Batch of 3 targets.
Target 1
Amino acid sequence: MRRNVIIIDDVKEQAEGLAKGLSRLLPDYSFENYHTEPEILDAIENRFYSLAIIDIRMDDFSIDGIGLAEKIFEVNPFANVIIVSAFKDEYFLRLKDLLLTGKIVDIQDKEDFTIWLPKLKETIETYYKKIDKDPSEINNALLQYYSEAKNETNTYSKGEKFEHFMSLMFQSIGFNQVLKRVKDQSLNEVDLIIRNDIEDNFINKFGKYILVECKNKPVEKINKNDFIVFQSKLKNTNGLAELGILATTGYITKNTYVEAVRESGEARKILFLSNPEIEKLIKADNKLSTFKNLIDQQVKDN
């Protein structure tokens, strides 16, 4: 898993200083910092991160650090949190409830950077060593979220949960930013747009973005018409996206595969992710390698 850490503090200088200091001590990690409420909420929802460092006290915000941690646990099953504050006693009872989630890595006092940064560095390294040693925690979180998306009975929530699951899946593969419900210039709505920011020669050849269409309809199968409509959306990107993904909690009709073969000469490629492929990705320890193998099997040039 990519070692992406987000730093959340309402004071710009502290957020930026912490990110800069940790980047110097841990050059192989990615540290992003956010200090305004809108960008913090957007990052929690749309950025990939497996650890968040959060200041509790957020002056002039409608939400404090504990509320932000709760939101993180709601939308990102991969992420754990390090809480930092000089005001822990004020939040004692709420911190106690937060600790019961089992997703708080540590609660630390803010200190002078020369003293604090080495402590924080050690905490972060210990956390990621644990994840590297046992990736099953991530796989189990994905599997649970996938099951919840499939079993949801409310039609709107069902679609929303599956889109969020797919966003988490691609983040676990290593993509750093996934945007939801985006309309292009021709007003075609795309469920997910993935920024193709992985440093991999094979993946990079598919353009700057990857489009994803999500269909959480286990009873219905994706048909030829679904494929044709999605292919037109891919064409409308004018080369910015050369790979599209049709994802379903159900299955794909045979004539859809036939249509895909007929269109295989196109530069743009469409990958099908149905139950078998999704379960392979969930269970894979190396998700990027498995994703590349699926592309090879389905959409390589004929």
Target 2
Amino acid sequence: MTDAPLHHDIVIAGAGPVGLAFARSLKGSGLNILIVDPQPEEALALPAFDGREIALTHRSMAILTELGVRDRLDPADISDLRQAQVTNGAAPHALQFEPQDRSGGRLGVLVPNHRIREALYRLTVDQPDVDIRAGRRIVQARIRPGTPRKPGGAALHLDDGTALTAGLLVAADSRFSTVRTQLGVGADLHPQGCSMIVCRVRHDRDHDHVAAECFDHGQTLAFLPLNPDADGFRSSIVLTLPTAAAEDLAQASDAVFEAELNRRARGRLGAIRVISPRHLYPLTVTWSRRF
């Protein structure tokens, strides 16, 4: 005999910000929810710094406040974004983005991605109606068509042999979703031939909480303003280059990488010192063939 499949109202593939926020938004709904993620529990509970600073609009921050996330964030990790400037090469003028009066002088805020993930996990893992299966993968997924007398849903198998059924299956396992592939939903992936290097830096001049993005020949360089600490002014730098050049620079020595950043930044914020590990992200556009 085969054990009957375990049934959940909702199964979510992926315990990233999207999957966790969706589960958190259903608190008190009475729905039985299972989240499946291949990362070990330790990595979900204490995500490592990944270099990414997430720009959040006022509405996005309001949603995170409603979910209880803001109360779990250290105020030092919430950096104001008061203005944004976009420049084109050596052109003397910049395209300016400024807040409306009702925004309190901010376009939004910047919050480290790993801090958002950590806060969402700590909130969701204690939610009575949620079970999180860490270190497990969905290896088979199919949709069961419904009838007027019998609702449909999803039939799933995990890599440990567990059989599941669900009224709703949510694929929140990134733009490279394996669940999407298992369900036969095709997607076109278009590598852009560029990759971005992200890291935190310290610099001599105050950024005044202004984000700057500089489009230049063969590169794009963005400065994202972070809150200062006891040692001075800080920003997150995003340098986008053709992939081969980005890979070479990401693997260069600390001294070479820092010198190259200073050369490319052209003294915009004064002397720059790298204060975090570098992270490399290839840029790919993903477009689903069905919605």
Target 3
Amino acid sequence: MKAFLIDLDGVLYVDKTPIAGAKETVAMLEERGYRYRFVSNTTSKCRSTLAKFLGGMEFEIPEDQIFTPAIAAAERIRAEKDNKCFLLTREDVRRDFEEAGVPLADEEVDFVVVGDAETDFTFDRLNKAFRLVMDGAEIIALEKDRYWMGADGLYLSAGPFVYALEYATGTLADVVGKPSSDFFEMALAELRASPEETAMIGDDINTDVGGAQNVDMTGILVKTGKYREDVVEYSNVIPDLILESIAELRAYL
């Protein structure tokens, strides 16, 4: 491997606690000249906030080394001139769309963008999104994960709410985050690496490992974050490598 795409939540940290040895592993990648980017399905924070959050845990990761579904979605919507979107996300994520110059609105929109809105998933906002889609807007799902791991256990992610809108409207969402092939290809383009020379490191057997393998990358699964042995056992995805944590990667470099 010459390059790595690395998940954040569950791989470098859980909630606000760094994974033991994660910082040292990132430092080793830098010292030995590996190319790497951090690809996250985290959609409750904009990229600049995420970089500051990582800095608070002493990860020295520049903003431009982080690639998120919000960045991918903003690039896609901006490419289609004059399209407006309604955001069903946390307020902080608006910054990625505003900085990209994407028009935001509550009426007569072309896209409804759904991310991990957490406590902002109110009935009124969900019903607003439902009505906009029924009026012709497309659904863009920043991610479709079922859950994520917090300090005190599992939390619902955006996926269950995306499925609810799909069911209610009879409209399928376009997923722009992992495991979307387009997402991985955009990340590889930023990294200037081919799939064959790149490994994806993540804690989700399907989204991280399966998505990476679908574009001919190596898929490495770590047993931290939301890793669950029973999910791996019943998945049809077979990781190329399973590590106790990202710290164990140093033994393979």
